Amino acid sequence: MAASASPAAATLRFDQAAKHSNKDIVVLINPHPAAAGPSGGLPPFFATTDPARTAEIGAITESALLSVPPPGISLKEGARIAELVFGIAGEMRMLSSERDSNFQIRLAGGEQALLKITNAAEDRAVTAMQTAALAHLAAIDPALPVQRICETREGKPWEIVTGPSGQKHVARLLTFIDGTMLHAASPGPDLHRGIGALLARLTKALRGFFHPAAGHVLQWDIKHAGRLRPMLDSVEDSTLRVRLIALLDRFDAEIAPRLPHLRAQIVHNDFNPHNLVVNATEATRPTGIIDFGDMVHTPTLCDLAVACSYHITDDTEPLSRVAEMVTGYYRVLPLEEEEFMLLPDLIRLRHITTLAITAWRARRYPENAGYILRNAAASLRGLDVVDRIGPNKAAETLHAAALSAKPE
Length: 408
Known about the structure:
Blueprint: E1 12-14, E2 26-29, E3 45-48, H1 75-86, E4 90-95, E5 101-107, E6 112-117, H2 124-140, E7 149-150, E8 159-162, E9 168-175, E10 180-181, E11 186-187, H3 191-205, H4 238-255, E12 264-267, E13 276-278, E14 282-283, E15 286-289, E16 296-299, H5 300-309, H6 320-332, H7 337-364, H8 369-372, H9 376-389, H10 391-403
Parallel strand pairs: 11-14
Antiparallel strand pairs: 1-2, 2-3, 3-7, 4-5, 5-6, 6-9, 7-9, 8-9, 10-13, 12-16, 13-15
Helix pairs in contact: 3-6, 4-7, 5-7, 6-10, 7-9, 7-10
């Protein structure tokens, strides 16, 4: 769970200085460190449904995010930023990241936080959208297990800092959700149904959220799979490369024209085992959601497909976990017939996206190839399974499983 004031002890106060309508909720949760006693603590959290409260910090031109290495902030510099900008100090640990500089901070009182220094190439409007989404969720569904945005010393949700190369970066402090990451756990009973239900709950909480940056082009967005072709040159296996090209041809001809007819909104778009916290190493339920860095406006089915793609197995029932996830999702947020039919194809497209982008990035950044390629083998396995079963048969299997459960 997030290391912050417990719900029972949390102090809620409305920001009386904010100019907003009665429909725009602004809540600061937990006391300010200055009022928290000599032991200090985390700064107050932002919770608002008013996007203007997390307005853009100056837009940058088209993002080159996939082409730019992380900021390269050192532990020493990270500690300096944490103290000067957010007024906290503690034990620092650098975390792996594909594009940002992230630090886990443990304060003297036991509280934990995540200092996130964003890649300079990320459009700041997109960063503002992610920040606004977390603030929106804090106001709409306070019990949803997501991180909270902590204020700077000046009462802002971020600050601009200068990295070692002289580039400007957005620095944010978030609560740290402690626990076991799903990728390091063994699945127990009801876990996958719980994952599906949690994703549906998150999607419902984001339904009323809007931000001007939500339409940005993100290569990880399945609806843009047709743009992957130039990256396929980095796939060394020529047989696999030809296979992926053929599947993209099918996408362009048969799948892409159907996507505009699906329900769409701003979604998480990266519900993978590295972004989910669970209750134990023998996990029975998800307890936390992290990393909103791939948020985008896209069909909600794409979001579900991303989540499902990581849970295909290589046993005699390779779709059993996916079926449980779809069932859990369906009980909270029922799918339409067209969505059931397209889901296996979109799951397969997520695997294609992973194989293309990771091959391309690993060639550009061989020193970080291990981290970049961490999901490649599983993606190839998932691709093989969907191809072997066939998208129509897979859709029938998932449809039957979901209909066996009644919506909540």
